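Q: What would this chain look like folded?
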Amino acid sequence: MHSHIHPVSGAGIGLRRSMTSELLTSRIPDAIDFFELAPENWIGLGGRLGRQLREISEQKQIVCHGLSLSIGGPAPLDEQLVTDTRDFIQKHNVAIYSEHLSYTNDGGQLYDLLPMPFTEEAVTYTADRVKRVQDIIGERMALENVSYYLTPKRELEEAEFVRAVIEEADCDLLLDVNNVYVNSVNHGGEPMDFIRSLPDERISYLHIAGHYVEDDGLIVDTHGADVIDPVWTLLEETYALIGDRPTLLERDFNIPSLETLLLEVDMIRQRQSACQV
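A: My prediction, written as structure tokens:
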């Protein structure tokens, strides 16, 4: 099983269907090194969008970040989705395939990502499912640390749980810096301690995003706003600890113009070059 641990570099943004025409009418900006997309939204897509995706994937690297595999969930693993994803990965020469370390469906899609119970039993169960996915796709996948609002049953701390799944499944980690920050505010804990306790050699890339603060102070991870200063600071501290890593700006709705997105991409790139000195 080959691991592409750093098959991408630099800074990326999420690819939305609404962007494809704009991206292709002029040259794709050099500032964007890679695009991330949810394979479920693109698998089997023919016609104009399919052609545009092919054109984009010939110019820039693509990473896939799945939404609905529910890797830790109780429902049987959706092997058809995994097989379709494998074909999509091959077709578009996808560099990294990742999913959320959570469960999203329980017979029907749940609206939010539910946290895993942080137990030894959940480690084994999830790792076995990850191994099955990796057998089908023929390479390592990455799992993303998620933000959660309910504190699930816990025998382990969140970081111990994440590390245990990654080690047992022999998979990679998509480190979401924003989720580390959100959980530290909502549940306490020092964000850099969390990051320090993860296996940094397994980190394939990073996510950074904006979020929404509810009136009562609870932070909701919406990916619909600009990245805030404490999260930029945490990103800088992360680079200082583990070195420059490929980083994706997540923006799922309230998507501003490409020009505005590129300003945030530039803020990532500045921080990456500052830590290379």
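The CA atoms of residues 152 and 224 lie 26 Å apart.
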